[in-house]
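Help needed: design a sequence for this.
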C-alpha cells in the first residue's frame, strides 16, 4: 500500500499544479476511492467527502488558468469557467455543513454527549483547560457547533455577514484540529470553505503582492445546457436525499423524550 499512497500523492500533486490534469484528476479519484472502499474498518464520512470532491474536480475544467497544462497548451487557457463549476462545489460543501448540523439534532448531542467526554480529555490545555471541563464549555461547543454548521454557509455567501461566518469557521476548524482527533477534516474544510467566497478573491489577494496587476471583470453570460443541468441534478439529489431519513428520526426521538 505504500506504493499506492505514493501514487495517490503524486496524482494529487499533479491535480494541484494542473499537470496533465484531465488524466491525473480521474486517476486521483479512482485511486483514492479504491483505498477508501477497500478498508471498510476505517470508514469515515470525511473520506467519502474527499472522494466526492475528487470526482467533481475530475469533471470541471480547473486547469485553464494557472497550470502547467495552460502553459504547455495556450489554447486551453481561459480566465473564466462556467458558473456551474463553482456552484456544484459550493452545493457539495453546503450539504456537508448543513447535514453536520442536522445530524446534531438528536437527544444525546443536545444533552452534551459525546462532546462532554471529548472535552474531558482536553482539560490540560493552558489557560482554558479548567473551563473546557465545565458545563458551559459543553453547551458552547455542543449548541454552538450545531448553530455554526446550520448557518455558516449562508453567512459566508451573503456579503454583509461574511466576516461573521469566516471567523467562526476558522475557530471551529482550528479547534477541531487541535483538540479532537478527527483526521484531515478540519484542514480539508478550511480550504473548502474558501470556495464559498466570491471567485475573484485570489486575484484581489494578489494585489497585496503585485499592486500593478489589472483585475478585469466579466459579465455573466448564461448559456443553458439542458443535458449538463440534468446530470448536475442527478448528482445532487442523492447527496441531498440519502441523509434525510436519519436526522428526522433522531429529532423525533428527542421530542418524545421531552
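Sure. Designed sequence:
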Amino acid at each position: 500500500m505504500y506504493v499506492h499512497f505514493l501514487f495517490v500523492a503524486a496524482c494529487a500533486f499533479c491535480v494541484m499544479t494542473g499537470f496533465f490534469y484531465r488524466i491525473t484528476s480521474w486517476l486521483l479519484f479512482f485511486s483514492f476511492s479504491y483505498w477508501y472502499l477497500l478498508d471498510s474498518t476505517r470508514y469515515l464520512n470525511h473520506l467519502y467527502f474527499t472522494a466526492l470532491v475528487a470526482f467533481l474536480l475530475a469533471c470541471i475544467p480547473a486547469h485553464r488558468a494557472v497550470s502547467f497544462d495552460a502553459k504547455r497548451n495556450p489554447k486551453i487557457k481561459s480566465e473564466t469557467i462556467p458558473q456551474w463549476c463553482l456552484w456544484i462545489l459550493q452545493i457539495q460543501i453546503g450539504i456537508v455543513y448543513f447535514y453536520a448540523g442536522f445530524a446534531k439534532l438528536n437527544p444525546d448531542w443536545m444533552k452534551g454527549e459525546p462532546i462532554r467526554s471529548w472535552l474531558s480529555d482536553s482539560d490540560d490545555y493552558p489557560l482554558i483547560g479548567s473551563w473546557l471541563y465545565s458545563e458551559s464549555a459543553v453547551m458552547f461547543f455542543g449548541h454552538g457547533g450545531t448553530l455554526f454548521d446550520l448557518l455558516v454557509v449562508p453567512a459566508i455567501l451573503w456579503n454583509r455577514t461574511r466576516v461573521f461566518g469566516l471567523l467562526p469557521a476558522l475557530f471551529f476548524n482550528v479547534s477541531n484540529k487541535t483538540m479532537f482527533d478527527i483526521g484531515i477534516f478540519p484542514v480539508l474544510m478550511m480550504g473548502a470553505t474558501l470556495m464559498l467566497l466570491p471567485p475573484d478573491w485570489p486575484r484581489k489577494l494578489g494585489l497585496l503582492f503585485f499592486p500593478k496587476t489589472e483585475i478585469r471583470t466579466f459579465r455573466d453570460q448564461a448559456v443553458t445546457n439542458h443535458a449538463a443541468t440534468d446530470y448536475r441534478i442527478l448528482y445532487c439529489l442523492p447527496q441531498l436525499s440519502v441523509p434525510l431519513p436519519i436526522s428526522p428520526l433522531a429529532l423525533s426521538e428527542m421530542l418524545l423524550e421531552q
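Confidence is low (pLDDT under 50) at residues 245-251.
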